From TrEMBL:
It comes from the Bacteria. One of its GO terms (biological process) is response to antibiotic. It comes from Nonomuraea muscovyensis. This is Erythromycin esterase-like protein.
């Protein structure tokens, strides 16, 4: 069987991966099976350089705070601030500590320095301002949207009105609300009023598009729409935080990926005339099939429950069709965690290359049985489901991390 599997695999290169994709691809999602492993980020950097230099890609999107990413993009495109500033201000989820992320920004800035604006690379985040301790407050996004509109329109709400409804930021960022919905302010009368205002402001942004397009720059107009999406998404998420139903955590997963999908849509539209885009995130946020997560110990009464939700990739893939491609990454051995021989990762570990690209169609054709699902050694790793590998366009395998 190993010889047949070898027929479905090639040593990893950017060209070997893109050879498996539709030429119509506008968005390529590269997933990682776990966070915090530099090998996957280094592989991403290598792929992105190939995509830029040989495939016409001009942007990259990370699973990071969409608002913070503006600081990283300003450094990359226009040299605003320093690399240290971009690393400290331009990422969420503590991703600014990653050497591979630092190398990514350094390379993108060097690439852009001698190029005109229309050819420069752009950097985006597509996650909401959400951390493990809870979501950020809506103040930065909502007030930025208000200020943009107030400079050109007569609004029914003042900044003082917004500040009074928002109250202290600590009300919104209380970490106790992560596990206790009664600690959340997401369904207070003030929060409900703010959701209505955010919706009305976004409607004004759309209704006055001709005037705002003529009066402001395309970049300012795009950022205003980002603020509108983020304010509405955060207020919706805070309302979900206050939900006392047993389905609360699953609802929050759905809301997060819906926010991610909206951001992907907006970025793809913005980049449409410049070239395709690479998105990098966890496999569960980019896969085309339904995402599942078995909650581990430590989740109290929810431990052992399986959450299901549609990923941002599945949502956007429905809209884009063959213009969306997904490459799932997985690995073989990590320390004492060695895959069983009858699992997908165990079978792929017999390949001779340290990194390989596998054609899922050919792999399925040569296997005489479905591999046994891998049981992860810890909850930070979510293995590929062998039953759904046919819904991936490519599999990237790293033998050891």
């Amino acid at each position: 069987m190993t010889v047949s599997i070898r027929d479905a695999a090639r040593p990893f290169t950017g060209g070997a991966l893109t050879a498996l994709l539709s030429p119509a691809t506008r968005l390529l999602g590269l997933g990682e099976p776990t966070h915090g492993v530099e090998a996957f980020l280094e592989l991403r950097n290598e792929l992105f350089r190939h995509l830029v230099e040989y495939e016409g890609y001009r942007s990259i999107i990370l699973e990071s705070d969409c608002l913070s990413a503006l600081a990283a993009d300003a450094y990359i495109t226009d040299g605003i601030g320093t690399l240290d500033d971009a690393m400290s201000l331009g990422f969420g989820h503590h991703l600014g500590a990653s050497p591979a992320n630092r190398e990514l920004l350094r390379w993108m800035r060097a690439y852009n320095e001698q190029r005109p604006p229309r050819e420069r690379l752009h950097f985006y985040g597509f996650d909401g301002p959400l951390e493990m301790t809870g979501p950020a407050g809506p103040r930065p996004a909502l007030t930025a949207l208000h200020d943009y509109l107030a400079a050109h329109l007569d609004l029914a709400w003042s900044r003082e009105t917004l500040d009074a409804l928002l109250g202290p930021d600590q009300r919104w960022t209380n970490p106790a609300a992560t596990t206790d919905p009664t600690q959340s302010v997401g369904r207070t009368p003030e929060a409900r009023e703010l959701r209505l205002i955010a919706d009305d402001l976004r409607a004004l942004l759309t209704a006055h598009t001709p005037h705002l397009t003529a009066a402001t720059s395309p970049d300012d107009r795009w950022r205003a729409d980002l603020y509108a999406r983020t304010a509405a998404g955060l207020l919706r998420y805070h309302a979900g935080m206050a939900d006392t139903a047993a389905t609360r955590v699953g609802t929050l997963m759905c809301l997060r990926d819906a926010m991610m999908a909206d951001n992907l849509d907006a970025i793809i539209d913005r980049e449409a005339r410049r070239g395709p885009t690479l998105a990098f995130a966890h496999n569960r946020h980019l896969q085309k099939d339904k995402s599942r997560w078995l909650l581990p110990e430590g989740w109290g009464p929810l431990a052992g429950r399986t959450l299901e939700w549609w990923s941002a990739g599945a949502i956007v893939g429905t809209r884009l069709g063959d213009q969306y491609a997904f490459a799932a990454t997985t690995f073989g051995t990590r320390g004492s965690d060695v895959p069983q021989p009858d699992t997908l990762e165990g079978l792929l570990s017999a390949l001779p290359d340290a990194r390989a690209v596998i054609d899922p169609v050919r792999l399925t054709a040569v296997l005489d049985r479905k591999p046994t699902p891998r049981v992860p050694a810890d909850h930070t790793y979510l293995p590929l489901d062998p039953a759904t590998t046919g819904q991936t366009d490519a599999i990237v395998f790293v033998k050891e991390i």
